[in-house]
Every structure is written in C-alpha cells, then in structure tokens.
C-alpha cells in the first residue's frame, strides 16, 4: 500500500474524530490524575504485568472486557459489577458469560494496587483503571502503545437487560456490523480496525459450529472458509464436543497482537462469519488488504479507533461516581 493511501486512511479517521459530536469526552485528559494520583499509570502497568506473567489469558480477557463494557451504555465499568439477589448484572447476560475471569481479576488487582497508595485511594474510577489495563495488555502482547485519555466516572447501574442487542454477534454481516458500530459513532474503517483485536483470544466451538457443520442444504462448510482450516476446526470441535473447549481466534500467531488477523481473512481463515465478511464483502475488503499489508497502518488506525471507543457514553460527576469496589455499586 503506498504512502498516499496510508495517509488518506489515517486522515479520514482523524477527521471523523473531529467531526463526531460528543460533548462529554471534553472532560477526558491524559493528565487527569497528574495531581490526584501521579503514579497511576505505573501502578496499573505493574499490576497488569504481574498478572500477565502468571497467565497470557490476561491480555485477551482484559481487552475483551473493555470492548464489552463500552458497547453497553458506554465505558463506565458497569461490566465489572457483580449480580445481587435483587439485580442480575451485565456480566451475567448470556453474551457476557464467556468473558474470562482473568480480565475481571486483572482490573481488581490493579484497583487494589491503586488503593494501596493513600493519596490515590478511592480517587480513581474503575472505568479508567480498565481503560489503562487494556492499553497495558495490548502492549504486553506486542501491540502498540498509545495515550489513554482519563477522567471517566463509573456508572450507577448494571443490568443484564441493558446488554440486549448491543454486542456484535458471530453471524453478523457487514450491514449489521456497520449499523451497530455506527450507533456508537464509529465508522466502518474503525470497526475493521477494532476487529483486529481478534488477533488474540479464543472462542468456544458453539460460536462457529454452523460454519463447519450443516452450513446450508447445499454444503456442510461455509464456502468462504478455507477447506483445510475447516477440517482443522472440525477435528478440534467434533459434534457434541465439550462446550468448554476453546479455539484460538488467530490460528497463526495466537499470542501476538499483530496484523496477522487480516492476512488470515485473505486466506479464508476468519473464525466467525463476522470476521470473514470483512474480506468477502467488497466494501470492506480494501481496508482489510491495507491492514494486512502494513502493520503500521493497522496500528495507527487501531489507536485512533480504540481512543474513540474509549469516549463512548462516558459518565461525569452528575451521572456517575467513583466506586470503592469495582464489583459493587456505591450505596
């Protein structure tokens, strides 16, 4: 991909950042805690690093937690709230049951490390800790470093019913993906860049089984899928497989935050329909090819997109607070 096309792709993202009207994110700043808790980023970095060295799952689990949080009423840490006898929280919605516990544990450990510093105790939102932990997880897995805007407040509610229809599904087509992301002010290019996070993590067999078994009356296997890849998936996910069995989203470099995801799509090795459609649909294919060709182009677009995602639906002092315990709403 030549330099001009690269500049156009990044410039179009930058322009969308300026044009999309969002008055709440004006409160965000990388320096929000410079006087409140000056060592915040270092504290969170060390907590995430320690957890990451215990288990690699820390990285994809934390990143996925951030995405699932922001897509439901904004980046307000409502995904972290535990259910009570009188309230079924977001984390217990069926679409969130596959979230790995290591993501929650990462944020809780980072919160504990922050609160262990008297100057910082109960002055940093769980939403900001999650945003910072996500950046650290990406970097630890080999992805790009980026500035994290801070100043979010934690949400005042967490209801499983809020999740309905707000998260992308594995069988989504391009129109459905575009519509859902557009509802958060995110463009198609930004959606494709954020989808690159599927370079990490795993999925349970049930989420893609239809693509390799009984796809249609005419064919068992989705014709957009590479035949050898389909055979591999069938061997790893036989019929009536244990539902706990999980498959890497990226069959080539599952432990690296890189641009291999887009190369996989070019080869028919996208695990979900919602992955592979990014290449099979001619409207999104040029961006996939651009990101597959240049790691730098992918990284710059990903940074712009995740920064914009981090501004979605943020809360302020009027409609949020700072939780003392990330899993419990303040009384």
UniProtKB/TrEMBL annotation:
* Cofactor(s) the record lists: Ca(2+); heme b
Per UniProt, the cofactor note for this protein states: Binds 2 calcium ions per subunit.
Return one GO MF term: lactoperoxidase activity
Hey, where's the site called Transition state stabilizer on this chain?
64
The record's keywords, sorted A to Z, are: Calcium, Disulfide bond, Heme, Hydrogen peroxide, Iron, Metal-binding, Oxidoreductase, Peroxidase, Secreted, Signal
Residues that bind substrate: 168
Q: What is its EC number?
A: 1.11.1.7
State its location(s): Secreted
**Active site per the UniProt annotation:** 68
Q: Which SUPFAM superfamilies match?
A: Heme-dependent peroxidases
Q: Which residues form the signal peptide?
A: 1-26
Q: The organism sits in which domain of life?
A: Eukaryota
Q: Which cysteine pairs are covalently linked by disulfides here?
A: 37-120, 70-75, 126-326, 205-237
Task: Give the residues the record marks as binding heme b.
Answer: 198
What biological processes does GO assign it? hydrogen peroxide catabolic process; response to oxidative stress
Q: Which residue range or ranges hold the Plant heme peroxidase family profile domain?
A: 27-330
List residues binding Ca(2+) 1: 69, 72, 74, 76, 78, 90
**Sequence positions that bind Ca(2+) 2:** 199, 250, 253, 258
Function in brief: Removal of H(2)O(2), oxidation of toxic reductants, biosynthesis and degradation of lignin, suberization, auxin catabolism, response to environmental stresses such as wounding, pathogen attack and oxidative stress. These functions might be dependent on each isozyme/isoform in each plant tissue.
Q: Which family does it belong to?
A: Belongs to the peroxidase family. Ascorbate peroxidase subfamily.
Task: Indicate what this protein is called per its UniProt record.
Answer: Peroxidase
The protein's organism comes out as Acacia crassicarpa (northern wattle)
């Amino acid at each position: 991909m030549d330099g001009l096309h690269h500049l156009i792709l990044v410039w179009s993202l930058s322009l969308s950042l300026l044009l999309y009207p969002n008055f709440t994110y004006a409160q965000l700043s990388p320096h929000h805690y410079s006087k409140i808790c000056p060592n915040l980023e270092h504290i969170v970095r060390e907590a995430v690093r320690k957890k990451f060295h215990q288990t690699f799952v820390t990285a994809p689990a934390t990143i996925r937690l951030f995405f699932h949080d922001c897509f439901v009423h904004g980046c307000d840490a409502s995904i972290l709230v535990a259910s009570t006898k009188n309230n079924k929280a977001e984390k217990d919605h069926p679409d969130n049951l596959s979230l790995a516990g290591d993501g929650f544990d990462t944020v809780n450990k980072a919160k504990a490390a922050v609160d262990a510093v008297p100057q910082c105790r109960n002055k940093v939102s769980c939403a900001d800790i999650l945003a910072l932990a996500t950046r650290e997880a990406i970097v630890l897995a080999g992805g790009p470093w980026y500035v994290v805007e801070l100043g979010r407040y934690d949400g005042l509610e967490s209801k499983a019913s809020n999740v309905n229809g707000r998260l992308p599904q594995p069988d989504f087509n391009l129109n459905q993906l575009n519509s859902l992301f557009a509802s958060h002010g995110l463009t198609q290019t930004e959606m494709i860049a954020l989808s690159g996070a599927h370079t990490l993590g795993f999925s349970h067999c049930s989420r893609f089984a239809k693509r390799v078994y009984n796809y249609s009356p005419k064919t068992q296997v989705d014709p957009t899928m590479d035949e050898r890849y389909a055979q591999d998936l069938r061997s790893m996910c036989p019929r009536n497989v244990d539902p706990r069995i999980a498959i890497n989203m990226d069959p080539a470099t599952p432990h690296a935050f890189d641009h291999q995801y887009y190369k996989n799509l070019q080869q028919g090795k996208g695990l979900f329909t919602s992955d592979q459609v990014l290449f099979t649909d001619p409207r999104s294919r040029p961006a996939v090819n651009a990101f597959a060709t240049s790691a730098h182009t992918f990284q710059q677009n990903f940074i712009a997109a995740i920064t914009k995602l981090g501004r979605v639906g943020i809360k302020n002092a009027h409609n949020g607070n700072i939780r003392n315990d990330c899993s419990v709403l303040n009384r």
